[in-house]
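User: Please write out a complete single-protein record containing the residue sequence and its fold in token form, without commentary.

AI:
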Amino acid sequence: MENFAVFISSIRWQDVVDISLNSYILFRFYVLFRGTNVFRVLMGMTVLWFLQRIAISLGLIVTSWVVQGIVAVGAIIIIVVFRNEIRRVLQAKNLKSIFWGLSYKTATTPTEIIAETVFQMAARKCGALIVFPGKEDLSDAVQGGTPWKGLITKEMIASIFWPDNPVHDGAAIVQGDQITVVGAILPLSDREDMPSHYGTRHRAALGLAEASDALVIVISEERGDVLVAKGNRLREIKQKRTLEHNIQEHVGTAAVNKGAVRNEALEIAAAAMLSIVFITGIWFSVSRGQDTLVSLDIPVDYINRTAGTQIVDTSAKSVSLVLTGSGALVKSVTPDQVGVRLDLSKAAVGRNTFTITSDSISLPPGIVLREVTPSEVDVMIDETIKRELPVQIDWVGALSDNLILVDSVITPSNVEILGGKRILEGIATIYTEKVLLDKLSGKGEIAANLVLTPPSLKMAPGFKDKVTIQYLIRERE
């Protein structure tokens, strides 16, 4: 159980995306090519691939080599022999249906034909108005029109709304599996809250929907949008299945056999699950196949230090970590992705020894800690105090023989320093940086930085780490 928990925690979000993306690609291959000879050959190639992996795990070198060759040649055979079938499948679908959407193998119904044709026409930005009457008579609301009474087909619907057809600007009325009237004139809605990009077709669709219980499909000629009007609502439809559902709900008929749809839905769900299992198996065999070791030097970060204390000294500024994981993953690890943190919340004044454990180290998912050097770190903690100390100039060099330093004044002459109690008790004076005498003459003023040693010493609030030196140099009498 513990190993399983470690494995789960080692999975990165990149691994989830990797598995999901490739599983979806494999699933789309199933959706596009199921029922074709290409799909049957691909299934055979998959079986051969599994045999190859089994041969590799058993150490059957020749067998794995032969099967690998067959798989490579088979991939070329699929492209060459079944190129026409592959082209027919891809040409029959637009780019959207290749990447998403599902198709069912049930018998095509008028509702499906209308929905599919509507979205094909929308893709070409071919405007259209299609009316599905409800229980109310439309004779008072609809004017004109030409009786048609033709069975519903894709070609018929496309020809009715073909731009050069005299009746393409009017509406087509559908009853059952027939188009009964074409070129019908619908009443226009006088609503003022409609978007500005809605045209006459949209107003006509909404006008009839407001005046009756009919459902009207409108295709925008300018934008290629598909909308459905019913009652006082005009809704945009993005998917063919949604449009089918709206039509079925309005006319009160089922367009497909529910049992067949349920069986196909289960088949597609099973294919999706198998795609995930298959790709997960490949990912596991590739990413977890061989472990690689890498050594990194990581600086130690000391956190949660108690207020009023400071770190005086440590036995190690950094530690060496030996990490292991899959080759591709380990090679991608950089030092900034790894952290070593020691919690000083329970440290006392004096010397403290901390053991570096896995809890002290943060690693990217999928990387495992193998070794830490050193495994223990000594930290010297001291109480922080404030002390006032005099400032002294650190003169270097010498004046000319005929010159003498008469006077020098330091401002401020005393400064307050924050630091460890043991350190400050051993310091009597704070020195400036080195000031060269041989570059001075006459009377003047210079600024000099203070030298704080060790670096753990800090200036107290209100004091700067720089002083002003006023000097006076004269010639010897």
Notes: DSSP finds 13 helices and 21 strands in the chain. The radius of gyration is 42 Å. The chain has four domains: 10-101+267-287, 110-255, 291-382, 384-475.
